[in-house]
Structure formats: C-alpha cells, structure tokens
C-alpha cells in the first residue's frame, strides 16, 4: 500500500486523539491492525502511531513554538492532526525527507481541511524543518 494511504489512515486515528482520552492507544492500534494491510505496512503504521503518541507533548510543543499569535486550542482539530503527523515525520523519521513530509501534509490538508489551511500547514512545517 502506498504511504499516502497509510498516512490518511493515521490521520483518521490522530484526529480522534483529542476526542477519545480513555484507552486511545489500545483502540487506535486495534483499528489499525484490523485494516487490510501487508505485514510490513502494519509494522510501519504501528511503530509510527506508537511513537507519535509517545512523543505527542514534544510534537505539540514544537508546533506551538511556530504558531505566531495562535495556540493549539485555536487550530481546527483536522489541521492539528495534520501538523502532528508532519511534525512527527520531520523530527523523528530520518528516512523520510522533510520535503516529502511537508508535501504529504499539504496534500492531506487539500483533501481534508479548509482551502487556506494548506498554506498555513506548509508554513508551520517549513519553519519546523528549518530549525
């Protein structure tokens, strides 16, 4: 399966993160492992998700540093989920070029968010990548 489809699946899960506090990781992994993915894709997605959840505070802190005049709570939940995925990749996935992570986040914004979100997300992730 293409990584873009896996990112879309991870976006759906990450979007739920702020709504479901109790047993989030357990239910997220259950959802993920019940998808029709190859074992390699499941392993990638599971590792990605576990690391993203474990480093959420660090990821959110990096995002917040780049928000000029904004707070995380003011962002739409979808934009925040997309920023979390992109930031996670930029900071912790060394085998994914930053340019690819930013582009993929912008593509997710085009598909799942408001028209102006893609520029905003691009700007925040670019600032994180340049740091």
UniProtKB/TrEMBL annotation:
Q: Which organism is it from?
A: Garciella nitratireducens DSM 15102
What is the phylogenetic placement of the source species in the record? Bacteria, Bacillati, Bacillota, Clostridia, Eubacteriales
- Any GO MF annotation of the entry: RNA binding
List GO BP terms, alphabetically.
Answer: DNA-templated transcription termination; transcription antitermination
Which NCBIfam families does its entry note?
A: nusB
What's the protein called, per UniProt?
Answer: Transcription antitermination protein NusB
Task: Cite the NusB/RsmB/TIM44 domain residue spans from the record.
Answer: 5-130
Record-linked Pfam families: NusB (PF01029)
For this UniProt record, give its keywords in alphabetical order, as a comma-separated list.
RNA-binding, Transcription, Transcription antitermination, Transcription regulation
Keyword Magnesium recorded: no
Which HAMAP family does this one have? NusB (MF_00073)
Keyword Nucleotidyltransferase appears in the UniProt entry? no
Recorded GO CC terms? cytosol
* Functional summary from the UniProt entry: Involved in transcription antitermination. Required for transcription of ribosomal RNA (rRNA) genes. Binds specifically to the boxA antiterminator sequence of the ribosomal RNA (rrn) operons.
Name the protein family.
Belongs to the NusB family.
């Amino acid at each position: 399966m293409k990584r873009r489809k896996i990112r879309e699946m991870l976006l759906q899960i990450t979007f739920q993160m702020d709504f479901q506090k109790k047993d989030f990781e357990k239910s997220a992994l259950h959802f993920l492992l019940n998808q029709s993915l190859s074992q390699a894709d499941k392993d990638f997605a599971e590792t990605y998700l576990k690391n993203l959840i474990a480093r959420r505070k660090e990821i959110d802190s990096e995002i917040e540093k780049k928000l000029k005049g904004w707070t995380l709570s003011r962002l739409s939940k979808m934009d925040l989920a997309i920023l979390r995925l992109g930031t996670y990749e930029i900071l912790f996935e060394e085998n994914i070029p930053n340019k690819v992570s930013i582009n993929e986040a912008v593509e997710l914004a085009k598909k799942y968010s408001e028209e102006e979100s893609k520029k905003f997300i691009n700007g925040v992730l670019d600032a994180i990548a340049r740091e």
